[in-house]
Amino acid sequence: MINTQNTAPGIPCPTESCDHKIKVSLEDLLFQKVVKCPHCLVELTMNREASKETISAMAELHNALENAESAKTFTGNSVRYP
Ligand SMILES: [Zn+2]
Asked: Cα of 17 to ligand 1 centre, how many Å?
């Protein structure tokens, strides 16, 4: 069995006694105002300004994953620049 808990992408829970990560998808970051830690149920308000870097990092990852996906059906160039 593989435990992906520690390597799963997410925001570390701000509660000191809780070492869970709050899983946040790109969609959550973009569209949700509040995310909840499933462990201690603390609510995090998304601050778009403060998490700008996180959002752009996740957007890049998202794009990279999509590129990787399309690269599979692509012979030759793995990366295309528009
Ligand atoms: Zn928590």
From this structure: 8
